[in-house]
């Protein structure tokens, strides 16, 4: 028999959740019995009466209730032993110390105050660009530490005899003497200033024989006391290390950004409610910080409302409007493809012309020779400047949302910039290893034009990075600031029509992704290139900050920061994956230079690893390692990896269904509460 106060079965069956579940199961099946519902009704208060182990600060209570709980907890500790009191006090002190240390470390974060100020004035979308720039400064600095520690530092130690260190050289064996001739164009005697400037901009002359480029590291081993340091192996492993570090770091950030992106896109209304009801930080006491937080929330809400407005507009399109927009998009994409092909062909022809005419004796140390050497960089920069303007104009005609406009424009421009680097390297490889006749027969590559081709490739990457920085600086000095002055002090209608400049997130992000891809590719050929990239991005931060504050206006169409951060990392990850291709070809396919560098005694750079395995490992380990590198291991490993991926995808879908069911359950519980409130109101009447 049911005790007094138990809920009747008929009453429970009137709940909306019960009716909804019954309809889902066919409409005829009864869900439970009187006993089961009575048991559930009796168990519910018991479950609610169970104490939850939560500290007072984390409970959603008023301050008076939290003080009462703390007083109760303090009274309960009076009966404890001295050991227990000391342990509780120590835990609280340790947690407080960790919290204070965490607060102090926040002040040590690079550009933290500047980035928060930018977020408050221009929104979280612009702030995401500067945070991304800070991330690249840190990444390049760590890459520089890796290359300097394992490549450059051993050379410095052996040069000055520190730790009783010496250098070991080995002459190339079974190599034609003509392949070992390498005479860098060093400057001797009285040298004019413009010659030093030419060398500084092109990486030739005195820079060519420094530790900046691959040709400087022409040793085989470093003896530190009685320990032998295998320099070729260290050079190759350091290259793999910085690539693996970059990949893991970017993959980690992309996965975290993908999670946040999924959470936001799954329920936009929930994100909106979080901003309105829980977005304010009540710990803020500084008025300027409060204004920055207010502006940040304002920009985020503007972004949400703008996106909802555009989604409603897209949903109200008629069939005729959809056909017109899709036809226009197809036509525009054909134009984009034609622009890309034209840029690639121009880069290829200019690179071939530059390589064939930049080393002539009549043009040596002249301004014409410098221009010819920089011709590929000039054409690539011109293509990267003109094509994005065309893409930005065309994207406005395609009628996309602001966030998707940035993504599509960024993808098109990324493809242009990264593919232009690929076309440049392809043109160089065609000159290095694709020579016809007997030019490549003695050495396996064009030894006459490229006696140390790794240094030549490093110089091309160096010139691309230097010229990219010069263009960014020139745009700020000769375009952005003059435009600001003209718009401010000139009342001409033509000038006022252009107006103040908006900070283009996609274009600025593209610049640093392009430069970072150059750094990843060029570090193998120029080990100190990450140091130049670190200094470059450090200066660019302040250039862009000054340009943003003094010459730009707030964006008319705000951009969401959460999706931007995730997309920036994904595009940078694509750039890293594309950088793997030329590096893999250079390491495993193209014969290494026999006149310079650490790999002059092997056919390709990759041969260092099999040689070390054969010399240093036992036969058992040799069979094991070569077995891992064989197809017999690779195919089953790939199959197992695919099975694991399918399992993870299936598990993710199952979790997604559970989340959807839990959301439905929350909705039904809210309806049950409304139903019970109406029942109580009717009973009181």
Automatic annotation (TrEMBL):
<dbReference type="InterPro" id="IPR012496">
    <property type="entry name" value="TMC_dom"/>
</dbReference>
<dbReference type="GO" id="GO:0008381">
    <property type="term" value="F:mechanosensitive monoatomic ion channel activity"/>
</dbReference>
<feature type="transmembrane region" description="Helical">
    <location>
        <begin position="624"/>
        <end position="649"/>
    </location>
</feature>
<feature type="transmembrane region" description="Helical">
    <location>
        <begin position="374"/>
        <end position="397"/>
    </location>
</feature>
<protein>
    <recommendedName>
        <fullName>Transmembrane channel-like protein</fullName>
    </recommendedName>
</protein>
<feature type="domain" description="TMC">
    <location>
        <begin position="452"/>
        <end position="562"/>
    </location>
</feature>
<feature type="transmembrane region" description="Helical">
    <location>
        <begin position="409"/>
        <end position="429"/>
    </location>
</feature>
<feature type="transmembrane region" description="Helical">
    <location>
        <begin position="233"/>
        <end position="251"/>
    </location>
</feature>
<feature type="compositionally biased region" description="Basic and acidic residues">
    <location>
        <begin position="44"/>
        <end position="57"/>
    </location>
</feature>
<dbReference type="GO" id="GO:0005886">
    <property type="term" value="C:plasma membrane"/>
</dbReference>
<keyword id="KW-1133">Transmembrane helix</keyword>
<feature type="transmembrane region" description="Helical">
    <location>
        <begin position="461"/>
        <end position="479"/>
    </location>
</feature>
<keyword id="KW-0472">Membrane</keyword>
<feature type="region of interest" description="Disordered">
    <location>
        <begin position="1"/>
        <end position="57"/>
    </location>
</feature>
<keyword id="KW-0812">Transmembrane</keyword>
<dbReference type="InterPro" id="IPR038900">
    <property type="entry name" value="TMC"/>
</dbReference>
<comment type="similarity">
    <text>Belongs to the TMC family.</text>
</comment>
<feature type="transmembrane region" description="Helical">
    <location>
        <begin position="330"/>
        <end position="348"/>
    </location>
</feature>
<feature type="transmembrane region" description="Helical">
    <location>
        <begin position="135"/>
        <end position="157"/>
    </location>
</feature>
<feature type="transmembrane region" description="Helical">
    <location>
        <begin position="566"/>
        <end position="590"/>
    </location>
</feature>
<dbReference type="Pfam" id="PF07810">
    <property type="entry name" value="TMC"/>
</dbReference>
């Amino acid at each position: 028999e049911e005790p007094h106060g138990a809920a009747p079965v008929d009453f429970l069956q009137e709940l909306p959740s019960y009716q909804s579940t019954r309809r889902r199961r066919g409409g005829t099946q009864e869900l439970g019995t009187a006993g089961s519902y009575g048991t559930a009704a009796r168990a519910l208060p018991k479950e609610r009466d169970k104490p939850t182990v939560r500290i007072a600060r984390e409970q959603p209570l008023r301050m008076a209730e939290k003080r009462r709980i703390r007083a109760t907890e303090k009274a309960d500790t009076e009966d404890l032993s001295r050991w227990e009191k000391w342990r509780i006090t120590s835990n609280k002190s340790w947690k407080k110390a960790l919290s204070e240390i965490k607060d102090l470390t926040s002040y040590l974060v690079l550009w933290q105050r500047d980035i928060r100020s930018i977020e408050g004035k221009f929104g979280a979308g612009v702030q995401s660009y500067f945070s991304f720039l800070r991330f690249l400064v840190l990444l390049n600095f760590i890459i520089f530490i890796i290359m300097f520690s394992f490549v450059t530092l051993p050379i410095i130690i052996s040069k000055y005899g520190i730790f009783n260190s010496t250098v070991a050289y080995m002459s190339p064996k079974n190599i034609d003497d003509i392949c070992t001739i390498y005479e860098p164009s060093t400057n001797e005697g009285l040298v004019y200033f413009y010659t030093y400037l030419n060398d500084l901009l092109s990486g030739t002359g005195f820079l060519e024989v420094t530790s900046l480029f691959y040709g400087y590291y022409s040793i085989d081993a470093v003896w530190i006391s009685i320990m032998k340091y295998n320099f070729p192996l260290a050079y190759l492993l350091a290259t793999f290390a910085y690539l693996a570090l970059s990949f893991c770091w970017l993959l980690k950030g992309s996965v975290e950004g993908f999670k946040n992106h999924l959470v936001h896109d799954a329920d936009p209304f929930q994100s909106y409610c979080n901003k309105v009801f829980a977005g304010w930080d009540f710990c803020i006491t500084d008025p300027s910080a409060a204004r920055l937080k207010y502006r940040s929330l304002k920009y985020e809400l503007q972004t949400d409302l703008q996106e909802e407005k555009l989604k409603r507009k897209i949903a109200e399109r008629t069939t005729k409007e959809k056909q017109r927009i899709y036809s226009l998009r197809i036509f525009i994409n054909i134009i984009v493809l034609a622009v890309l092909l034209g840029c690639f062909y121009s880069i290829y022809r200019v690179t071939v012309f530059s390589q064939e005419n930049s080393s002539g004796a009549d043009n040596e140390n002249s301004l014409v020779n410098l221009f010819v050497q920089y011709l590929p960089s000039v054409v690539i920069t011109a293509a990267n400047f003109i094509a994005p303007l065309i893409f930005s104009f065309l994207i406005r005609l395609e009628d996309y949302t602001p966030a998707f406009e940035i993504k599509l424009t960024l993808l098109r421009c990324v493809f242009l910039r990264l593919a232009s680097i690929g076309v440049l390297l392809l043109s160089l490889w065609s000159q290095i290893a694709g020579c016809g006749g007997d030019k490549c027969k003695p050495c396996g590559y064009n030894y006459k034009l490229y006696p140390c081709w790794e240094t030549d490739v490093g110089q091309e990457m160096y010139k691309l990075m230097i010229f990219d920085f010069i263009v960014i600086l020139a745009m700020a000095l000769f375009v952005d600031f003059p435009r600001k002055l003209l718009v401010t002090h000139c009342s001409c209608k033509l000038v006022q029509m252009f107006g103040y400049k908006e900070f283009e997130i996609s274009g600025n992000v593209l610049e640093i992704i392009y430069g970072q891809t150059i750094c990843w590719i060029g570090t193998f050929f120029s080990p100190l290139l990450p140091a130049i990239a670190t200094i470059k991005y450090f200066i660019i931060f302040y250039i862009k900050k000054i340009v943003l504050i003094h010459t730009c206006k707030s964006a008319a169409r705000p951009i969401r920061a959460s999706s931007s951060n995730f997309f920036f990392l994904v595009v940078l990850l694509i750039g890293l994956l594309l950088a793997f291709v030329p590096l893999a070809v250079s390491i495993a396919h193209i014969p290494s230079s026999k006149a310079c560098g650490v790999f002059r005694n092997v056919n390709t750079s990759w041969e260092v690893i099999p040689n070390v395995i054969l010399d240093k490992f036992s036969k058992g380990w040799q069979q094991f390692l070569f077995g891992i590198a064989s197809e017999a291991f690779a195919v089953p490993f790939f199959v197992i990896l695919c099975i694991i991926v399918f399992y993870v995808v299936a598990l993710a879908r199952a979790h997604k269904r559970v989340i959807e069911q839990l959301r439905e359950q929350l909705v039904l519980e809210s309806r049950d509460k409304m139903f019970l409130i109406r029942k109580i109101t009717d009973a009181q009447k």
